[in-house]
Write a structure and sequence with these properties.
Shape: globular
Strand content: 25-35%
Mean pLDDT: 96
CATH topology of one domain: Rossmann fold
Low-confidence stretches: none
Largest sheet: 8 strands, mixed
CATH class of one domain: Alpha Beta
CATH architecture of one domain: 3-Layer(aba) Sandwich
Oligomer: single chain
Number of helices: 9
Bound molecules: benzoic acid
Length: 255
């Protein structure tokens, strides 16, 4: 399976809504001056910077070296590092771990939850939002039907995403030793930039796993078919709307 190639400059230019929506999650975190906070899957660092305005000491971590390089360039006063959310450790535990729009890329959720738990102080907070069950299903079903009908490929075999239900994720947190204070699973229809090219741009940013082995022409052709197939469900007035469904949790490490 090919890897997702992150494109930090395009990400910042075309997908700033990702961080904009994450501001609500940062408010739920309620960072305090002097706290040590890890932003897990920090991307190009915008929310780490936002959180640091509270006076907290924020470390941003991301799997992508390209995103981390861009984050360091944008926010030289903050600490950023490349790391694997499924397997990380810290010598000095954090007061809180924050994550926005990243955990659905980490399929081994039990290992993520264990790493987060081990990196927190007793009483530490885990505040996260990511894709929940049914997330972007309109885009995915369009892709799945095009892959099956035109290319004889079962897209499920290439799917890099983890979208648990509220019950599944809350249970996972509890079995690790977290107390789940709040968990919400809600619809967040999201206007995709670039008008009629909205699905195309979205897939070019996020869909690399699916197009392994495709030529450029095949990929463009497949994307055109997927855009058409998604139109009925996702096109409204002048734009595509991604059928995002978010899972937002606030949990506490109990000893
Ligand atoms: C999301 O934020 O839900 C998402 C982003 C890219 C790919 C899949 C899901």
């Amino acid at each position: 399976m090919s890897e997702q190639v992150w494109k930090p400059y395009e990400y910042d230019r075309q997908l700033s809504f990702v961080s904009a929506y994450g501001k609500g999650v940062a408010e739920l975190l309620a960072p305090q001056p002097g706290e040590r906070i890890l932003d897990l899957g920090c991307g190009t660092g915008d929310l780490a910077y936002e959180i640091s305005a509270s006076g907290a000491h924020v470390t941003g971590m991301d799997y992508s070296a390209e995103m981390i390089e861009r984050a360091k360039g944008k926010y030289p006063g903050l600490t950023f590092m490349v790391g694997d959310g499924e397997n990380f450790a810290t010598e000095t535990p954090y007061d809180a771990v924050f994550s926005n729009a990243a955990l659905h890329w980490m399929k081994d959720a039990a290992s993520v939850v264990r790493s987060v738990y081990n990196s927190l102080k007793p009483g530490g907070r885990f505040v996260a939002e990511f894709g929940g069950l049914g997330n972007i299903d309109g885009i995915y079903q369009a892709l799945k039907s095009v892959f099956a009908n035109y290319y004889g490929i079962d897209a499920d075999t290439r799917n890099p995403w983890y979208y648990p239900s509220l019950g599944q994720y809350a249970s996972l947190l509890e079995s690790q030793g977290f107390r789940v204070h709040t968990a919400h699973h809600f619809d967040r229809p999201t206007k995709l930039p670039e008008g009629k090219d909205g699905i195309k741009h979205w897939l070019l940013q996020f869909g690399d796993h699916f197009f392994a082995g495709f030529t450029v022409e095949e990929k463009n052709e497949a994307i055109d078919h997927i855009s058409q197939a998604a139109q009925k469900a996702l096109w409204h007035k002048d734009s595509f709307y991604g059928d995002y469904k978010r899972l937002r949790v606030f949990a506490e490490k109990v000893v």
